[in-house]
Design brief:
It is found in: Cell membrane. The chain is 32% helix and 26% strand. α3 packs across α4 (111-124), α4 crosses α5 (140-152) and α5 packs parallel to α6. The chain is α/β, with parallel strands linked by helices and 226 residues long. Bound molecules: adenosine-5'-diphosphate (ADP) (2 copies). One adenosine-5'-diphosphate is lined by residues 95, 97-98, 111, 115, 119, 131-132.
Amino acid sequence: MITLENVVKSYPNGVGAINGISLHIDRGEFVFIVGDSGSGKSTLIKLLLKELEPTEGTIRVNGVLLNRMKKRNIPKYRRKIGCVFQDFRLLKDRNVYENVAFAQRVIVTPTKEIKKNVPAMLSLVGLAEKYKSFPRQLSGGEQQRVALARALVNSPDILLADEPTGNLDPKTSREIMKLLEEINARGTTVLVVTHDQDIVNTLKKRVIRMQKGIITGDEKESGYIG
Ligand code: ADP
Ligand code: ADP
């Protein structure tokens, strides 16, 4: 599903953010990516979204070589990858329903489909009753649920979560992680960048450890510190 071969990414100012990474993630895996601030985790996510180009090496996602992808095909590619972030990134002037529906409207989904899919996604994340609420009327955990519903409504193959619990209390964090596990159990490949030691230690998933732009650990059913 995701294969990196000898990937290097240096920023124009000469900073080597990724210094030679080879990695394979199978369809349906649940993977944590951990590492200190500055170890290259966000750069890795941006490379997978083709927001950045590798300086060296190749990246393949779903059999597609990203290096060779035409510019005009990038939006379509990104739609098959759901993303959530620490700061939720919801549209503040749209209600919950519209925040999720928006993801479908941009790919010109028939209204009939949207009216079926959006409530289904909101039920999945446990927010069916709050469809008329605006982001400011929701707790952090609820806002992240909306972000998850939006990320999933177009049935992505992969869900990338960059510090999804960074702004949430421990109990809410565990609930969001449980949801990510459910989403994974339904077949979506899930990659989670996190600093949350408790969660990584509890869930016992594959853990990829990064340090200074290289992979220093990659273990199945692991914890935060090996
Ligand atoms: P992490 O997500 O693990 O905190 P990043 O991928 O953000 O790590 O950063 C990796 C390295 O690349 C750091 O040394 C950081 O300062 C540097 N870096 C990140 N973004 C840029 C940029 N746009 N320009 C120059 N250097 C950058
Ligand atoms: P449009 O005609 O602009 O596509 P809709 O008729 O789909 O608008 O929806 C108008 C508003 O009604 C939406 O902003 C949403 O809040 C609400 N809405 C419509 N259908 C549903 C539904 N099935 N579940 C929850 N809210 C809905």
